[in-house]
Specification:
11 helices; alpha/beta; transcription; transcription regulation; DNA-binding transcription factor activity; D-Maltodextrin-Binding Protein, domain 2; WH-like_DNA-bd_sf; 18% strand; LysR_HTH_N
């Protein structure tokens, strides 16, 4: 017997074979498959040719499987069950009963993270939300399924297999302690007299703020670095340092530490931001729910804090 050419096999024939074995007659198999008896007979003929075996023979008025047919039935039954499971539509995600763990990589933004956790747990009380630190390996972790959603800024240098959605560009503001001398006359000249605080989240070879200062030929001098956005408020409150940061990370700190808001001397105007996820999870109902929930809330949060900071911002005088 020649080797079976799987690429030429019609899967409908296997479903017909299964029905014939289980029903024991052409008529019953046809009724189960909603086909005519002649169509099932034709399919049986093709199966006999394909497998070079009669497969079913009439004995005592009933179709009986040959040893070859019984062997095929034993081997094909779990394969067909697995195939049906794989092809079934995915069950909808039910937040109310799910106990999944969702991991989100996001720059520290206490107000947003706390509100987001509250909103998610209100809708999905049994899930767990893990906020993951931004680091250079995030994209690999995303592709490997170790995190579900990644907040990433800058040019879209994303690995293959990662999908993303663009968000509204980041808005930057500068911040100083309340009563800082520079607030009396906020200008590029006076700003140059003070040093800056930088958040060194990762070694990227220069922040977008630094690059903008160079482009505009408005040099700045660093006076301190911290490794996390959550440290900005206490550092500014105790010093005369200036910092320029994305609005969404400052929602809590500017009020908690009574900081004053300034129009930046130099900052990107259209700095891109996006949420990214593994393309293999693009149609996963749980991931879809998470993305819809987080992305909508993030956009609302950013718009709200931009409005509040803009309302109290001291404009720059050149």
């Amino acid at each position: 017997m020649s080797q079976i050419q799987l690429h030429k096999m019609d899967l409908n024939l296997l479903a017909t074979f299964e029905a014939l074995i289980e029903e024991g007659s052409v008529a019953a198999a046809a009724d189960r498959l909603h086909l005519t008896p002649s169509a099932v007979s034709h399919a049986l003929g093709r199966l006999r040719t394909q497998f070079d075996d009669p497969l079913l023979v009439r004995i005592g008025g009933k179709m009986q499987p040959t040893p070859k047919a019984l062997l095929l039935a034993d081997e094909l039954s779990p394969v067909l069950r697995g195939l049906r499971r794989a092809l079934e539509p995915q069950a909808p995600f039910d937040p109310a009963t799910s106990d999944r763990v969702f991991r989100i990589a996001l720059h520290t933004s206490p107000t947003f993270m706390a509100q987001m956790t509250t909103d998610i747990l209100r809708a999905a009380p049994n899930v767990m939300i893990e906020w993951v630190r931004i680091k250079p390996s995030n994209q690999n972790d995303l592709a490997d399924g170790l995190i579900d959603l990644l907040h990433v800024g800058g040019p879209a240098y994303l690995m293959d297999g990662i999908a993303s959605i663009d968000l509204s560009p980041v808005t930057f503001f500068s911040f100083v302690r309340n009563g800082h001398p520079v607030t009396k006359e906020w200008s590029t000249e006076n700003a140059a007299k003070y040093r800056y605080l930088q958040v060194a989240v990762e070694d990227t070879g220069g922040t977008p703020i630094e690059k903008e200062h160079r482009v505009l030929n408005r040099p700045r001098t660093l006076g301190g670095k911290v490794h996390d956005f959550s440290l900005i408020g206490s550092m500014l409150a105790a010093t005369d340092l200036i910092t320029t940061q994305p609005s969404f990370v400052m929602a809590e700190m500017w009020t908690r530490y009574d900081l004053q808001v300034l129009e930046p001397v130099a900052a990107p105007k259209d700095f891109p931001m996006r949420f990214a996820w593994s393309a293999r999870n693009a149609s996963d109902p749980g991931n879809n729910w998470l993305r819809d929930t987080v992305i909508a809330a993030y956009e609302d949060h950013q718009a709200d804090i931009n409005h509040k900071l803009g309302a109290v911002m001291i404009p720059l005088r050149n």
